[in-house]
Amino acid sequence: MSIRNDIIPVLEGVILEEQEELSLGELCRLCGVHAEYVLDLVDEGILEPAVQGKRYRFPGECVVRTRKAIRLQRDMGMNLAGVAMVLDLLDQIEELKKIIRHELYR
Fold first, then answer.
1. pLDDT category, 7, cuts 50, 70, 90?
2. Which of 8, 27, 52, 76 is the most buried (most CB within 10 A)?
């Protein structure tokens, strides 16, 4: 029996620590987007990079947030203002879940 390489999915991944910071170029490569898109996310308040001199440094969690923004735009046809609102609501839900879990296991 031979194995067909064309039907076996190959997974690639990068493990990022929450404290790890990425350059604009690194974030773009990891998310498969142009720098202009990431800068639009910054302008809309979706991403909040640290500024070091003239360069942005993005926390590792920006990869997940950028990918969520991409999916919301692609799958739901949202504009960036809508994406920002949805991501803020998802953040609030996560915070409420943490509070509930903390109260339940006290």
1. low
2. 27
Contact 92, 103 (CB under 8 A): no
CATH number of 20-104: 1.10.1660.10
- Cα torsion at 33, 39, 44, 45 (round to 10°)? 100
pTM comes to: 0.78
Do residues 61 and 91 lie in contact, with contact meaning Cβ atoms separated by under 8 Å?
A: no
Distance, in Å, from the CA atom of 71 to the CA atom of 1, rounded to the nearest integer, reads 39
What is the residue extent of each domain of the chain?
Answer: 20-104
The answer to whether residues 40 and 81 touch, using CB atoms and an 8 Å cutoff, is no
Q: Each residue of 17-56: pLDDT tens digit?
A: 656 899 999 999 999 999 999 999 999 999 999 998 989 9
